[in-house]
Structures are given as structure tokens and as C-alpha cells.
Automatic annotation (TrEMBL):
Keyword terms: Carboxypeptidase, Hydrolase, Metalloprotease, Protease, Zinc
Protein name as catalogued: Zinc carboxypeptidase
Residue ranges constituting the Peptidase M14 domain according to the UniProt record: 24-366
UniProt family annotation: Belongs to the peptidase M14 family.
Cofactor(s) this protein requires: Zn(2+)
Lineage of the organism: Bacteria, Pseudomonadati, Pseudomonadota, Gammaproteobacteria, Pseudomonadales
Keyword Acetylation tagged: no
GO MF term list: metallocarboxypeptidase activity; zinc ion binding
GO terms classed as biological process: proteolysis
PANTHER family the record matches: PROTEASE FAMILY M14 CARBOXYPEPTIDASE A,B, SLL0236 PROTEIN
Length: 366
């Protein structure tokens, strides 16, 4: 009689774990391919690139990591570039743009001596997918139903747009701010920790948060969103805008304070900007890239039939065009950070540019 094979408890547990891991990897490839691509990219990255998990998010039986990626100078007083994507889970193109730039950078590190020299003088930090739970669920908010861009402890000083400016009625409605007594969501707390660890003590730092939204044109927004008066470093924003336009006069971006469009409660970058100003004398410029999705919809109206079609290009050649079209601006920000001493205004020039910025953005025409 043939001997029956028996499975030991340890073997059964290992088999069950392997089966569960396969199911989870299949779920991630299906619902969150951006995370799979990012982990593959980091596994193949050169040794000068470091990565770590700064938060973990539970959703649908999965534990999703929130990755921080660092490279460049380790000097505490080196200027810094911070890139953030995926704050809104529906806007996958934001994460994809950040990852496309990171992939380009990592590829160039193998052969580009000029890039290696540049990274000796500037630090780069990336949070490519800030809201992995929302992206997995294909929703704007995080798994708790909170809009991360409306979740900071800061209140609009004037009347905000109904619902759009942030609402506390229900997490089932868009733009839910969360309850103030509960504090900020874990994803935002992770970003706050990264900024608190990264930026104080640096002479200059710039952040770019990549989104997509309704509009015909790609826009660069800057604080404030909670008030219509200019930010403290408005002269530096004007100097950066002029420097960009002189170097790339045929660009297609529109620079504006977000308050020119609408006021919001709980704006994340308003809050973080004010927090950094309390502890650091260096210039910090938080920018938001709003990619205009109406152009994609106009060329393919049936995208309106899909929720993600409202915010992401669906046709492959348009998707590729978007991924490459913003690399130049991110490269510019990297060079601008490294060479901030050549364009950042001081003294009389700062006063002149501040007045120019106020005239350009904050004084209504007669």
C-alpha cells in the first residue's frame, strides 16, 4: 500500500502565506499598478538612491506602503526639491508624472556625469503615491473618505465655494474635510513629518505636487488658497516665474495663486508653508501642478463615461505626451534649486518683484 504524504502544519502555513501573497500581488497589479511599478523601479535603483516606508495604509485586507525616496546631497544645508504625487487617488496621472521623471533620473545616473555633479549640490525627496489607499479604491479621497487637500487645520478667511471649498457634511460627498477633533489623516501626517525632517535649515526648497483637474490649460498654483492676500515669499515666486519664462519662453503653463480661482478650507500646502515659516528662515516655495484635463476630454468625449476618464488621459499617445511634457519643468526646478543664489531676490530687487507680483496677481483692473 503506497505511503500517504502528510502536510506538516508549518508547510500548510507557508503554502497559505504564499497563496495569499500571490492573491495580493494580483490585486495590486490589477488595482494599483503604479505601486508595483514603483517597487520594481526602487528594487533596480542604483545604491545612491534610498527608500523607506513612512506610513502604511490598510484597505481591502491589504497593507499598502507609502514610500519616501531620497537621493542627492546629504548636506543638511543643501537646497531641496520635493515631488509629491497621488494626493487624490483618482488623479493617477500625477503619480505617473512623478514616477516618469524619477525613471528618467535613475536611467541618467548610469551615464550622466553632469547630473551626478548636480546632485552633489542639491537634495531630492519624492513621495510618488501619497494616497495609495484612495488610488487602490479609484476614489479622490483616502479610504476614510477624507479629501487630503482639504484636511489641514486652516480655515478660509472669506466665503469658500460650496462643497468644492471643503465640507463637513459627509465622507460620502466629495471634498470632505474630516472632523477637526480627529486631526489630520495618516497620509498627511506622514507628509508633515517628511517636511519637518527635510526642510528646516535649508536656504531654499521647492515642492511640486502633481494633480489633474478641470481646465483647458496646465497651471502652476501657489499659496494661498485660504485667503486672497499674497504669501510671504511672493517675490520669490515671481522671480521663479520670470526665470522659467526667460529660459523657456514657449511654455504652456499659467502661474497663479489658487485664491484667484476659489478659496478652500483645510488646504494642505497653505498649512505646511505656514508651519515651515515658523521654524526656518530659508525660502520654501510649494507649487501645485494642475494638469488641464478638459483638453483630453474634448478630444475624446466618451472619457466622460468613466470616472477616471475625467482626470486622466485614456488614449496611449496622449498619455505618453503628458508623461514627457512635464519633465522639462521638473528638471528646471531641480536646476533652479541648485542655483537659487543666482536668481532668488534680495533687498531692492525683492521689493520691486513683490510690488510687481501684487500688481500682476492681486490688484483688479479698473
Amino acid at each position: 500500500m503506497p505511503e500517504l504524504k502528510t502536510e506538516t502544519p508549518h508547510t500548510a502555513i507557508a503554502a497559505e502565506k504564499a497563496s495569499r501573497d500571490r492573491r495580493q500581488r494580483h490585486q495590486l497589479r490589477t488595482f494599483l499598478p503604479e505601486l508595483v511599478s514603483l517597487e520594481r523601479m526602487l528594487a533596480e535603483a542604483p545604491p545612491q538612491v534610498s527608500s523607506r516606508v513612512v506610513e502604511r495604509v490598510e484597505v481591502a485586507g491589504l497593507t499598502l506602503p507609502l514610500y519616501r525616496v531620497d537621493l542627492g546631497s546629504r548636506a543638511a544645508d543643501a537646497p531641496a526639491l520635493l515631488l509629491v504625487g497621488g494626493v487624490h487617488g483618482l488623479e493617477r496621472i500625477g503619480s505617473q508624472v512623478v514616477m516618469a521623471w524619477l525613471q528618467s533620473l535613475l536611467s541618467r545616473l548610469h551615464w550622466d556625469d553632469a547630473l551626478r555633479g548636480l546632485l552633489d549640490s542639491v537634495h531630492i525627496t519624492l513621495l510618488p503615491i501619497l494616497n495609495p489607499g484612495g488610488m487602490y479604491l479609484n476614489q479622490r479621497s483616502n479610504p476614510n473618505g477624507v479629501d487630503l487637500m482639504r484636511n489641514a487645520p486652516i480655515t478660509a478667511q472669506d466665503r469658500s465655494a460650496f462643497l468644492l471649498g471643503g465640507q463637513r457634511l459627509s465622507p460620502r460627498l466629495p471634498w470632505y474635510t474630516g472632523r477637526p477633533e480627529q486631526g489630520m489623516e495618516p497620509e498627511n501626517l506622514a507628509l508633515e513629518r517628511v517636511i519637518g525632517d527635510l526642510l528646516p535649515g535649508r536656504p531654499f526648497s521647492v515642492a511640486l505636487d502633481c494633480h489633474s483637474g478641470f481646465g483647458w490649460q496646465d497651471q502652476i498654483w501657489f499659496p494661498y488658497a485660504y485667503r486672497r492676500r499674497p504669501m510671504r515669499r511672493i517675490a520669490s515666486v515671481m522671480a521663479l516665474k520670470l526665470t522659467w519664462e526667460q529660459a523657456y519662453p514657449n511654455h504652456d503653463y499659467r502661474f497663479e495663486p489658487q485664491s484667484r480661482h476659489y478659496l478652500t478650507h483645510g488646504d494642505l500646502w497653505d498649512y505646511l508653508y505656514k508651519q515651515i515659516n515658523k521654524v526656518s528662515d530659508g525660502a520654501f516655495l510649494p507649487l501645485t501642478l494642475e494638469m488641464g484635463s478638459w483638453r483630453w476630454i474634448r478630444k475624446r468625449p466618451r472619457q466622460l463615461l468613466r470616472l477616471d476618464g475625467l482626470f486622466n488621459p485614456q488614449v496611449p499617445h496622449r498619455h505618453q505626451r503628458v508623461l514627457r511634457s512635464h519633465l522639462t519643468f521638473i528638471d528646471f526646478l531641480l536646476h533652479a534649486a541648485a542655483s537659487h543664489h543666482n536668481w532668488l531676490p534680495e533687498g531692492e530687487r525683492e521689493s520691486m518683484l513683490r510690488e510687481a507680483a501684487i500688481m500682476h496677481w492681486y490688484r483688479e483692473p479698473h
